[in-house]
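Aim 2 progress update. The chain analyzed this quarter is reproduced below.
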Amino acid sequence: MKSMTGFGRGEARQESTGTTWVVECSSVNRKQLEIAVSLPKNVADLETQVRNQASAFCSRGRVNIQVRADRASAASPQLQIDVLTATSYLHSLRGLAQQLGVPADLTLAELIRLPGVLAAEPTEEPAEEVWPVVEQALSAALKQLVQMRTAEGSHLRQDIQTRLAEIEGLLKRIQSLAPLIPVQHRQALMQRLEQAGLPLPLDDERLIREIALYADRCDISEELSRAESHLRQFRQYLTASEPVGRSLDFLVQEFFREFNTMGSKCADATIAHHVVSAKSELEKIREQVQNLE
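Predicted structure tokens:
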């Protein structure tokens, strides 16, 4: 079980140029898998390879991948002087000085500082030659990302298991109280009839029919059975090796439906209190589940 939140960093050195390629990956919650890639212009063609590798590590969440080249330790680039541009500057400036009647005091140091005169020879290699190094850094970053997502997922699982145990206890209490509801209704009905001066014997057909109808309306045995089934299935998902975030999200919704039905069927204050407590725990579980891959 993995969270969708994590961070990873990897780097690899390109010996031919002395460039260190750095890859940083971060991920946050999303219903589907979204991959955003930021690459230097000279290796922009590697986006497809980066996306494919990221999708092999992650199945859900928004994954941001930033690739950059650290050239601080790279070999010094070869310098180039554009003689034609320098000559053009020189002639133009001398002509301007002659027109204005001022001395043409132009030094070599001033000339090479003019735009386009002095340039560094590019040392960047083609994207296909850079890819093995970028792939190495990307793989390290993604592995670190997954490790962090796995550690966070373990904490989420422990929290969910604790809350499931609380919900299981509440279900057992509701299950023990449910059979008493028709009995309580019969006692309340008999008391109201006596207070109204209309006592009926316990074997009166009308009284038996009323109690039977009420017992049928407030019967929550099916809801309890389905809730117990959801509980077992939830725990099975928690130990699964594949991503289960979407499945658990759906299961939480079904869980809510069962408790809502129990609360509407049973006009009992104690059961209503247990239902509210269970739904409160479910809401906390839902928040955690939405962080799961």
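Residues 127-177 form the longest helix (51 residues). The first strand starts at residue 6 and ends at 14. These observations will guide the mutagenesis experiments scheduled for the next reporting period.
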